[in-house]
Structures are given as structure tokens and as C-alpha cells.
Design goal:
heterodimer; A: alpha+beta; Ubiquitin-like (UB roll); 5-stranded mixed β-sheet; two-stranded antiparallel ribbon; B: alpha/beta; Cytidine Deaminase, domain 2; two-stranded parallel sheet
């Protein structure tokens, strides 16, 4: 099982500078848990106790997971996950 | 220091004016590591708000994929403030996630004066930088500092203030 995850510049401190990491799992939550085992601290930047952080966008292939099943979205081998911080402000 | 082409600068200001009283936003992409803001990409403000901006989530993905394919990065991330000064708000600072970018703010609170300033926002720290507007990016020589360009567009009294970053 392998799912490719694109990491944004600001979070590459957790991936030793790597732009892309690989993980596995049946849902996004499992995938993030798997990544956390090798890239400690990454998960906290993406989720809080309420779920996916408001200003972090996670895409499964071409779709924002907020329009799918959020953290419970099913993922499978060969999927591509992209993490992008929102570009936002006041 | 931000060095930006006059035409790009003018387009950013025009975009801000067009979307007023809502905030306008966008990026100027450039080759990775070049610090050259070459390709203006105006974005929709999904929040359509006078006090908040956010790139639409699908547009954001499309933008980053396109920049990736072209070996580009967001050299400038710009947005407007429609009733306050061109200085990053607390929200701007909290949500700034591109430490390598020049955050350009345009204030449109005055109808006849373009107030454009540039900042680095890294780990919650804001530092203002000089804006140099040049006729073209290939020219090394600036047409003038922010002072000259601001006064050309607007009230000359403002330029003194703008040429001295706080």
C-alpha cells in the first residue's frame, strides 16, 4: 500500500525537506497516523481536536476532502493526497 | 526588498480598485529561487468580504499545481485592505504560511491614493521592506524607489512616509 502525500514548503521541516512522502491507511485518519510515526509533529499541524484545521486544505486527488468524508475519507493505493495551507487573511 | 515591474504593480492596484469594497487577492508567481515576480495571477476572494480574503480551495489546488508544473513559486502574495492601512492585520500574520513570499498589501480606503507596501511575515514576525518599481525586471536599475512610484500615482505627501519603513 502506498499513497503519495505532497507536503507544502512550510511543513517540510517535518519531512526532512522532502516535498513528497509516502504512507498507507484505509482512511485519511489512518494515513495521517501512519505519517506521524515517521514524521512526528506533522499531524498536529493538520488536525486539532475538532478535526481538520480550518486553514489547512487537504485534497484527495482533485477533491477537497471537506467535500468528501473529511478525516474519514477512504483512501487507497495509488491515490494522491495534497496538503496546502489556505491563502487567507483579513 | 521587493523589485516589481511597473505593469504588474499597476495591475495589482487596478485589481484592488476593481474589487473594492471587497478585498482583492492574488499572487505573482516566479521561477523557484529567482525572487522575480513575473506572472500575475489574480485570484477570486472566496470570502467576498470587505474584511477577509481566502483563495477558493479548488483554485488554490489548481494554482499550486500549475506553479509546480512550471517550476514556479508564489514570489508575491497580495491582498487589499479596503478601510484600513496597508499593514498586515493580526489575522494576516496568523495565517501567513509562505515564509519565502513578499506579502504585498494595497489599501483602497482612499479613492485617489494608492498605498502599496510589502512585508515579510515569518513565524509571526512582520518586517516591512522597500518596494522598488522597475520598468522591466530584466533591467537592473530601478525607475525609482517606492517614493517615486507612489508620488507618480498619488499624493506626494504620502511618499515620504512610505519611503521610511517602520
Amino acid at each position: 500500500m502506498s499513497i503519495e502525500v505532497r507536503i507544502p514548503t512550510i511543513l517540510r521541516t517535518y519531512t526532512a525537506g522532502e516535498k513528497t512522502v509516502v504512507g498507507s491507511g484505509a482512511t485519511l485518519t489512518e494515513l495521517l497516523d501512519d505519517l506521524e510515526a515517521r514524521h512526528g509533529g506533522l499531524r498536529d499541524r493538520l488536525v486539532d481536536e475538532k478535526g481538520l484545521r480550518r486553514f489547512v486544505n487537504v485534497y484527495l486527488n482533485d477533491e477537497d476532502v471537506r467535500f468528501l468524508g473529511g478525516l474519514e475519507t477512504s483512501v487507497k493505493d495509488g491515490d494522491h493526497v495534497t496538503v496546502l495551507p489556505a491563502v487567507a487573511g483579513g | 526588498m521587493l523589485q516589481i515591474q511597473q505593469s504588474t504593480y499597476d495591475e495589482i492596484v487596478a485589481h484592488a480598485r476593481r474589487d473594492h469594497p471587497d478585498e482583492a487577492c492574488g499572487v505573482v508567481a516566479g521561477p523557484v529561487g529567482s525572487d522575480r515576480p513575473e506572472r500575475l495571477v489574480p485570484m477570486l476572494n472566496a470570502a467576498r468580504s470587505p474584511t477577509f480574503y481566502e483563495f477558493d480551495s479548488h483554485d488554490l489546488l489548481a494554482l499550486y499545481r500549475e506553479m509546480d508544473d512550471r517550476d514556479e513559486e508564489p514570489v508575491v502574495i497580495y491582498h487589499s485592505h479596503t478601510a484600513t492601512e496597508a499593514y498586515p492585520s493580526t489575522t494576516d500574520v496568523a495565517l501567513a504560511m509562505e515564509p519565502g513570499a513578499h506579502y504585498v498589501l494595497v489599501s483602497t480606503r482612499s479613492a485617489d491614493r494608492a498605498d502599496v507596501r510589502s512585508f515579510r511575515i515569518v513565524d509571526g514576525n512582520v518586517s516591512e521592506e522597500e518596494v522598488r518599481v522597475v520598468p522591466s525586471l530584466s533591467d537592473g536599475e530601478p525607475v525609482g524607489s517606492a517614493t517615486a512610484s507612489a508620488s507618480a500615482l498619488s499624493d506626494p505627501q504620502l511618499s515620504d512616509e512610505e519611503s521610511h519603513p517602520r
